[in-house]
Write a structure and sequence with these properties.
By secondary structure, the chain is α+β, with helices and mostly antiparallel strands. The protein has one domain (11-270): Creatine Amidinohydrolase, CATH 3.90.230. Helix content is 28%, strand content 24%. The strands form 4 sheets. It has a 5-stranded antiparallel sheet. The two termini are 33 Å apart. Bound molecules: magnesium ion (MG) (2 copies).
Length: 280
């Protein structure tokens, strides 16, 4: 089977190093969520993440990113995207308010290996509509992870994400311009992992592949626009968006969710899928 050049297949030892990075990412995101409250600025939340990076002896995967691609170098260690912002929001002076829907995307490298994850949560009292949007996105991420098994195709993952969102029958949009990706010695590697697709298509999922699976779902149209800062991606119709992401390693035992504290065991068991740790 022809394989697109550039897919990095990891050894068992390399996956273990990626687990170290993944846990730093997962624990930092939990700390950022815990710190989030009415009245805090997004820069203050970014600072929480910066402190965790320093304490862990890790390196931000985001800070300075994009400079080599003709974009202004990303100036923070988190992307914080609020309400109609979908992804790539730049932390700043914005004060978070009751009812805000906040997505935080975060990545680090440790000893040269990257982890990448995103969570969505509410500030204060979140509307039932926003709760449902985030929960649908989170569920779609896990559906994609559950479909990511050795011998599957990338299209199977994409289709699982898409089908899960559509099963909500809420008329949500699925963002197509931004995708999940391979991850390893760089944050973004081939293959792309789309959030819409047909089963049986695309790259073969092989042992040692590591993928970031990350649906971005909107309450209205999925048409996007980019703000003048050249980073922040918003819904053009102003509808709110959610973003969830985990980094997953495909091991002979099953899927190992490197950025989840429990490695994905609970969510995968609930879906009857083999959980594949290599051991911490
Ligand atoms: Mg990310
Ligand atoms: Mg990513």
């Amino acid at each position: 089977m022809r394989r697109r050049p550039g897919i990095e297949v990891k050894s068992v030892d390399q996956v273990r190093l990626m687990r170290v990075a993944g846990l730093i990412v997962g624990r930092t995101l939990a700390a950022v969520r815990d710190a989030a409250r009415v009245g805090i600025t997004t820069t203050e939340l970014d600072q929480v993440a910066r402190e965790h990076i320093a304490a862990a002896g890790a390196t931000s995967s985001f800070l300075g990113y994009g400079g080599g691609f003709g974009l202004p170098p990303f100036p923070a260690v988190t992307c914080i995207s609020v309400n109609e912002e979908i992804v790539h929001g730049i932390p700043g002076d914005r004060v978070l308010a009751d009812g805000d829907l906040v997505s935080v995307d975060f990545g680090v490298s440790k000893d040269g290996w990257h982890g990448d994850s995103a969570i969505t949560f509410g500030i204060g009292d979140l509307s039932p509509q926003a709760v449902a949007l985030s929960e649908t996105t989170r569920t779609a991420m896990w559906a994609g992870i559950a479909a990511a098994r050795i011998g599957a195709r990338i299209g199977d993952i994409a289709h699982a994400v898409e089908s899960s969102v559509k099963a909500s029958k809420a008329g949500y949009g699925i963002v197509a311009e931004y995708t999940g990706h391979g991850i390893g010695s760089e944050m973004h590697q081939p293959p792309d992992v789309p959030n819409l697709g047909r089963p049986g298509r695309g790259e073969l999922v092989v042992k040692g592949m590591c993928l970031a699976i990350e649906p971005m779902v909107t309450a209205g149209s999925a048409i996007t626009a980019t703000l003048e800062d050249e980073w922040t991606v918003v819904t053009r119709d102003g509808s709110p968006a959610a973003h969830w992401e985990h980094t997953v390693a495909l091991t002979p035992a099953g899927a190992w969710v490197l950025t989840a504290e429990d490695g994905g065991e609970a969510e995968l068991a609930a879906r009857g899928v083999k959980f594949g740790p290599l051991g911490d």
